[in-house]
């Protein structure tokens, strides 16, 4: 059981790096685009990296819960419960907050004619960016809780 737990920790930490690492830079990718062509390319890269984030995030949750099943005392630890709660909040933000805000952004990116990036895009993407930062902040708190296990 101990070896299995160690394997889970290994997968958990790898998933954190490979999944969360790209997650933190997602919102920066389209920022340097100067033209609509560059912007469309940036969104393609963002889309591919997001797949890594989803795989990493799913593995983090599965391995985290399995570790809890092996050591049930974890479900009495504050850091574990708060992380789990924050993780679900971050997960729910995807479909309920980020998705609705990203639909008009992607609409503009896909359908705008010409090379100049419209002001409307800048306005919409700034609004989306605020919530992406909130999501990143939640993940930073979870990482701090994971490392420090303060309570
Ligand atoms: C953003 C999501 C997460 C990230 C980036 C993350 C990252 C990490 C990292 C880097 C560690 C190693 C810390 C150390 O041992 O010093 C760790 C440990 C751990 N994580 Fe997570 N984690 C996340 C989500 C979760 C969730 C949702 C759960 C619970 C369901 C969980 C359960 C655990 C447990 C039990 C450990 C302790 C392993 C041990 O040392 O025995 N993690 N996590």
Structure explained in plain terms:
The chain has 151 residues and is an all-alpha fold. Helix content is 81%, strand content 0%. The protein has helices at 2-25, 36-70, 78-111, 119-148. The chain is elongated. The structure holds protoporphyrin IX containing FE (HEM). Protoporphyrin IX containing FE (HEM) is lined by residues 9, 12-13, 16, 20, 60-61, 64-65, 67-68, 74, 80, 83-84, 87, 139, 142-143, 146-147.
Give me a quick take on this structure.
By secondary structure, the chain is mainly alpha-helical. Helix content is 81%, strand content 0%. It is elongated and about 60 Å long.
pLDDT below 50 for ≥5 consecutive residues: which ranges?
none
- Structural class of the secondary structure composition? mainly alpha
Number of strands: 0
Order of helices and strands: HHHH
Rg estimate, integer Å: 18 Å
Q: What's the helix count? A: 4
Task: Please summarize the sheet with the most strands.
Answer: none
Question: How much helical structure, as a percent, in the residues?
Answer: over 70%
**Cα-to-Cα separation, first versus last residue:** 25 Å
Beta content: under 5%
Q: What is the molecular shape?
A: elongated
Mean pLDDT: 95
Unique ligands = protoporphyrin IX containing FE
Show the helix and strand layout.
Elements: H1 2-25, H2 36-70, H3 78-111, H4 119-148
Helix pairs in contact: 1-2, 2-3, 3-4
Question: Which key phrases capture this entry?
Answer:
151 residues; mainly alpha; 0% strand; elongated; binds protoporphyrin IX containing FE
């Amino acid at each position: 059981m101990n070896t299995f737990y160690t394997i889970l920790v290994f997968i958990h930490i790898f998933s954190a790096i490979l999944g969360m690492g790209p997650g933190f830079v997602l919102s920066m990718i389209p920022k340097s685009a100067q033209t609509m062509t560059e912007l469309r390319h940036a969104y393609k890269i963002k889309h591919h990296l997001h797949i890594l984030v989803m795989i990493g995030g799913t593995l983090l949750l599965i391995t985290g819960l399995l570790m809890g099943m092996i050591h049930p005392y974890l479900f009495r630890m504050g850091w574990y419960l708060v992380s789990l709660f924050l993780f679900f909040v971050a997960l729910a933000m995807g479909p309920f907050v980020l998705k609705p805000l990203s639909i008009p952004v992607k609409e503009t990116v896909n359908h705008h004619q010409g090379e100049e990036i419209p002001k409307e895009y800048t306005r919409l993407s700034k609004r989306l960016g605020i919530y992406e930062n909130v999501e990143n902040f939640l993940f930073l708190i979870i990482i701090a809780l994971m490392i420090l296990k303060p309570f």
